[in-house]
Amino acid sequence: MNVQENTSFGIPQSRVNVIYYANQYDADIIAEFSGGGSLKKASSFANLYEIVSKLSVYELDVSILLEVQPSAVSEAFGLVETLKKNWLSRNLVVVFLLTEKDPSVTETAFAARVADCYSPTISFADVKLRLQFLSAYKILNEQLKNLPEAPLQQYKVPFLKRLLDLAISLTALFFLSPVLLVIAILIKLDSKGPVFYTSKRVGTGYKIFDFYKFRSMRVNADKEVEKLKATTANQYGDSAFFKMKDDPRVTKLGNFFKKFKYR
């Protein structure tokens, strides 16, 4: 597979742009990073610095991957020090890829403001995700500098609106309480466990509160998610949330609720 020799890196940050030096990890880097963004290989540490020094101010959306063998530790740190001294390259994302695990090198790397330091065995998919995060964070950090310094005023619900909300809610709860009581009894008869399922939610002012709903699954259903993911496709796709057809964790009454959209 041929590595792109394109030195134009001014493309969206969702695609990782990389300049790298590697021998042992060369094939792994090409396999992981050649599918998107730009990838350019340097023949040595000195050549890598030469490439970086020729970048314009519009081409600094790049990350640098450095394979660091035990015999080249000093040279790698020398390159990092040189990059940090230059005002154009000082903020570039630099990641070390150690060929041998060495905690002292890792510690020194972080002290030298290397963005991350990986030791064998390296997952290059994880490295790519890390670079995507660091690139996005760098953009966000620049945007945050432009925010107004004046403190933001916290929104407060007007007293009359709050009073009206409480009145309507309590009235509705009063008239619905017989139905809610019947549902609670049916849940207790249907399966063992509490009537309500509790989960965390984010409210006004980013305050965390407990959200209650009638339990439609068996107890400890959350702990079975990973096991189900290994055997069943997630209807939400590649998401933190999980949903499957004919979920075995759902109780009989829960299936009735779902059928009539009472969830």
Tell me the helix content.
Answer: 25-40%
Radius of gyration: 27 Å
- Summed over residues and divided by their number, the pLDDT gives a mean of 83
Question: How many helix segments?
Answer: 8
Question: Biggest sheet: strands side by side, in what order?
Answer: 2-1-3-4-5
Order of helices and strands: EHEHEHEHEHHEEHH
Distance between the termini: 52 Å
Number of strands: 7
Structural class: alpha/beta
- Name the overall outline: elongated
- What is the assembly state of the chains in this entry? single chain
Largest sheet: 5 strands, parallel
Q: Low-confidence parts, pLDDT < 50 over ≥5 residues? A: 1-13
The percentage of residues in β strands lies in 5-15%
Explain how this protein is built.
The protein has 263 residues and is of the alpha/beta class. The protein contains eight helices and seven strands; from the N terminus they run E-H-E-H-E-H-E-H-E-H-H-E-E-H-H. Helix 1 links the parallel strand 1 (18-21) and strand 2.
